[in-house]
Amino acid sequence: MARPLSVERAEVSAYTVPTDAPEADGTFTWTETTMVLVRIWADGQVGTGWTYGSVATATLIRQTLAPMLIGRPVTDIGRIWPDLRIALRNIGYPGIGSMAVSATDCALWDLKARVLGLPLHRLLGAVRDAVPIYGSGGFTSYDDEQLAAQLAGWVHDDHLTRVKIKIGEAWGTDQDRDLARVRQARDGVGDQGELYVDAIAGYTVAQAVRMSYALDTLDVTWFEEPVSSDDLAGLRRVREGCQADVTAGEYGYSLDYFARMAEAGAVDCLQVDATRCGGISELLRITPLAAAHHLDISGHCAPYQHLAVLAAVPNLRHLEWFHDHVRIEQLFFDGADPPRDSALHPPESVGNGLTWRPDAASPFQVF
Ligand SMILES: [Mg+2]
């Protein structure tokens, strides 16, 4: 029997890309986004995975995780992952630690698929050929013209039938503008389109319930983080008081986080981010947990990192087509094909189907 192929080299780099306009949501403002990229080599193949976070994530990978990979069999992700996790026990796993493991795990899965000569979604057991997406942006910092242009791009250029905008402006202190922008988004997506909002913890519980009455009149069917995602009882109170689906989970850094959120009855749909939660490996443990609670999952951001694994998730609602990450991933990778029919379609080429473009990325490199 042939000896299993082993990891020969692992490298990490980081790229900071300015936004195309100042961006803000209910509780935060930003002007740039940093991608932390992991590449792992074996037998002439390279696997690629990434997360969006601090350069500190890259430092942690270079110092602690990357050296652990060398010489490990490429097909042994199930044994490598627990070793990565335990290596960060005393460093701090949730947050930057789990994001570091996430990017590394995603690169290992891509490498494994390439070494085996399979498309990644086939290796993972695809159950669908299309992953539905929804347009996501609609920042509170946009003026009416900027919002109109973004909505038109999603609806008319990308042919998306679902869109989401940010509300909860200035910690929930400008409800009138929130509602005016939701009205504009309803006009932009049309009567038949699905309209979602994300308050990013900008409201109080009672305020969120009151807001939901107005959102109902505009047929908003997705109310994301109406209150802090740490307030599971509060999320549940909003959920019981409003018609829209209440959702959260993007700050989930472990299986246990999602277990607590599901058991609390806090949400109608769990949002899972493979670039934060522990990678493809942990996402594949979270989805059956969600299924046992009769919940769908929705992929949070980093669309091309999620495409293959979400094609293998039976209880999938959709994937977030997040403005900032779409820009970066389409710039940095060949093979990041545009959506069709309001969905992304996993490519039948090996691995994740993407090829890194060093010339496009190098002007933004910071690590
Ligand atoms: Mg969100």
UniProtKB/TrEMBL annotation:
<dbReference type="Pfam" id="PF02746">
    <property type="entry name" value="MR_MLE_N"/>
</dbReference>
<feature type="domain" description="Mandelate racemase/muconate lactonizing enzyme C-terminal">
    <location>
        <begin position="144"/>
        <end position="245"/>
    </location>
</feature>
<dbReference type="InterPro" id="IPR013342">
    <property type="entry name" value="Mandelate_racemase_C"/>
</dbReference>
<dbReference type="InterPro" id="IPR013341">
    <property type="entry name" value="Mandelate_racemase_N_dom"/>
</dbReference>
<dbReference type="InterPro" id="IPR029017">
    <property type="entry name" value="Enolase-like_N"/>
</dbReference>
<dbReference type="InterPro" id="IPR029065">
    <property type="entry name" value="Enolase_C-like"/>
</dbReference>
<protein>
    <submittedName>
        <fullName>Enolase C-terminal domain-like protein</fullName>
    </submittedName>
</protein>
<keyword id="KW-0460">Magnesium</keyword>
<dbReference type="InterPro" id="IPR046945">
    <property type="entry name" value="RHMD-like"/>
</dbReference>
<keyword id="KW-0479">Metal-binding</keyword>
<dbReference type="Pfam" id="PF13378">
    <property type="entry name" value="MR_MLE_C"/>
</dbReference>
<dbReference type="InterPro" id="IPR036849">
    <property type="entry name" value="Enolase-like_C_sf"/>
</dbReference>
